[in-house]
Model the fold of this input.
Amino acid sequence: IAWHDLFAKKIFYQRSQGRNAATGVVTWDPASLTEIAGGNADNESFVAIAASANAVHFAWEFGGTVKYRRLLKSGSSWTLEAQRNTTAANGRRDNCPDLAVFNDSEVHVISPAQLDYAYSLNAGATWSKEVLDPLKPVSGGVKYPSLAVDSKGAVHVVFTLTVRGGWPPGSGGHWKNIYLHRKRPLVASENGVSTGKWIEGHDTNANFAEWADLGAGETVKQTLSDWVEIQIDGQDNIHLGWHGTAISLAAGFDDAFYQTRPASGMGDANAWQRPLSLHGGSPQEQESFTPSIATDAQTGVAIPVIMYKALGLGSYNPTDSIPN
Done:
């Protein structure tokens, strides 16, 4: 695990010693506690973490760009390697840049600022950067990009596109989930298609009327998607989680949703399935939001959902995990 210490302005990492099979209790190794940032962190240096076969990878924002560091395992020893600057610019947001890895050396990061995306094929020694903002299918602001890498090394990105308004309630706002996809950067081409080309860029809910734009003239109802996250399972099925207003049609009264895009082979995918409400709260009575997704090798997906009752009741209650 990794976390950001707001008051100390440091980033820490710790690993477990194992888990009791009978009780499920995890024991943490006190000797593994490591400070990652080396002084290059502030009160908004939120950290992302990913693991590969022999390494743990970290990304965070400091000094206007996304920083990267790798903790490499060799036998029974661990080495914290030099800190790297990915050169991806990062806007000040209340979340971290996102990070995904294909193997110990092939690393991808993305930041909210102008959809800055960067990848390294040599464990961070050098980086190639792209600005994905021009790939947006329509104009609008960007919130909380998330990325994942599939079993073939292809890169998948999803983010919230704030087309119009959204807050305060009654502004006729509309926010979308936008998905982008490219082939693995290491391969020059596949089936005659350059892997440097982003081959998809669309709204994942374009075919579902409940998520349609109600128009700038609508002064009460709004369809908003927010805080979208992506994961890809061992069979390359794509999983999304986010919160939005398809049920309530009112900003501030969100429900958590889950959506999948089954794989069809060769790193490509079939159509997006209709989003599933994970809570089904009554309009303007309860809220569930920011689902966090984890996948396993058998394509199962568990989504813990945090809910709270509106109207001043205010206590936060995590639900049980919801299986695929």
User: Anything to note?
Assistant: The chain is about 0% helix and 45% strand.
